[in-house]
Amino acid sequence: MDASRITSGLRLRARARAFLPKGWGDFVLQLFLFAIVDIAYELTRGLSEGSVLPAFAHARDVVSLERSLGVFTELDVQHWALQRHWALEIANFTYFHAHFVITVAFMFWLYLRRNQHYYFIRNAVFVADAVALVGFTVFPTAPPRMLTDLGFTDTLDRYASISNYSGPVAALANPFAAVPSIHTCYSLIIGVSCFFLVRHRALGFTWLFYPALIVFSIVATGNHFWTDAFLGGALACLALGTAWLIERVRPTLPHHTRVRMRLETPARRAGPATAR
Question: Is 141 helix (H, G, I), strand (E, B) or coil?
Fold first, then answer.
């Protein structure tokens, strides 16, 4: 009786190990770390409630900057999408649904199927989140959709029946978290990672177009300026670069990847990756 129970317990543990690369303890730890990041975001959202006037002033500063550079073309992109129902549907769906679903699915897939690469990307995401939260707090910026006097339209509210001003969206989102664009940042990290980690080369190549789709969606829906997207891309580079520096002192990647990233020479093999 006891032997059968022990055997059943061992089988369950073996199945858990097969599903979770480093067991339940590490899996729960990763969820806990992301929960901390979410709590930090909620705190910045609370701070933004008293930043209405600065947020609109900063948005107009962005408009002035882009006009001086000759790149204030967001209205042209939005008008183009508004005249093509299929393009507007893609933009609305991508912004509101695909971004969240793909980001979460990617992190779970990375942890479960490419676990040796997960910790490097996780570090990059955490660095990006930390810098972005500082940006949201120090430089709150209203999105273009709020500048209706310039001709912008809130396409989600008007054409997709998704209100940014009430309900769960208003309760969970920071309305002035435009600079930098975390959508763009995440999409670059995901696109580049999938290009290298997806084993089917044709499918991996298509992921390089994902950032372009995201940038189109955030501009066409009136949720970000080009400047936000550019800073989001710069943030992705900074985050990946910082993760590379962390990897130098706390190795987690497999040897062949460290060689490709110039973290090791082919002749030198690192010990087992144990860093978290």
Answer: strand
